[in-house]
């Protein structure tokens, strides 16, 4: 998943933290071909997996169940952590049969995704409940990163559920990245610079970002938009943005470049309605840039008073942008940074290790602020799928 955004970042930072705590993470991921390499965040084994049509490059480990079983048997992990609760739910049974503690991390709301995909409510609710019950029974622990994400499990009475927030790299994403020369590449001094940073796919609703610019300009606000990210919706978005000051940068590999841009934004927009945490929004706050988020998602819980929650329309998001701009610049940027500082990767790693029942090993103090923030995998002799 070379361009999988928040999930890739989370796995990398957790893996680095597990290493710092004295564990030996092994990440198993799908890719175009077989590979096995050591990285700063642990051992990464890539197994061939097909691309999901229309996903913008996502791959799944669905064609090599026998191969993955043999690999897990050979690795003999002390724990497993799984981040795909659709095609890899069977790994819970594998772990239970071998007495290996198991943990599933729910990175998405199944009910939310079914809503986005247009599944009728009469089918959606029953299907999501059945799948979530099976997931909860299959693993020793279910981890959700927000109360919003946990809600679909809690209402089913799931008891093996814990909430552990993710973190943000507070060094890379910092207000000091704000630079007039960088900002001048994208906006004039009298313009409002908006940034949208996400995969350009249907469930992210990136069209709302474009509609926000249109609504603001119709209201006489000189707003411009920079879109960071790529995906199957890009061509349609470029057509939608025709005649508007919208610039598409595509996928930006260098996280420093992303941080520079986020720090220069007046407001960042995060319109995805089924986000269960929203790392890009948190990175924006860490850079001192406030965020307008979709009220239907978990993001209001994450951004708190440092952002504004809006209904999922361009007009509502434009109103949210104006609310943030009405706040004095220095206090609104300080509030954004202060909110982000409540979410660190060392704290996230410690929470995940507690959920595993795998504390820092003897002789290792655990992840530090400098050691757990920038780079993919899980705990000592552990496998991450």
TrEMBL record:
GO annotation terms (biological process):
carbohydrate derivative biosynthetic process
- Glycosyl transferase family domain mapped to chain residues: 188-339
Q: Where is the Glycosyltransferase subfamily 4-like N-terminal domain?
A: 5-171
Q: What keywords does the record list, in alphabetical order?
A: Glycosyltransferase, Transferase
Q: Region (Disordered): which ranges?
A: 358-385
Say yes or no: keyword Transferase present: yes
Q: Which domain of life is it from?
A: Bacteria
What molecular function terms (GO) are annotated for this protein?
A: glycosyltransferase activity
Which InterPro entries has this protein been placed in? Glyco_trans_1, Glyco_trans_4-like_N, Glycosyltransferase_grp1
Q: For this UniProt entry, which residues form the secretion signal?
A: none
One Pfam family per UniProt: Glyco_transf_4
Spell out the Low complexity composition-biased ranges.
358-374
Q: What is this protein called?
A: GDP-mannose-dependent alpha-(1-6)-phosphatidylinositol dimannoside mannosyltransferase
Q: Which organism is it from?
A: Phytohabitans suffuscus
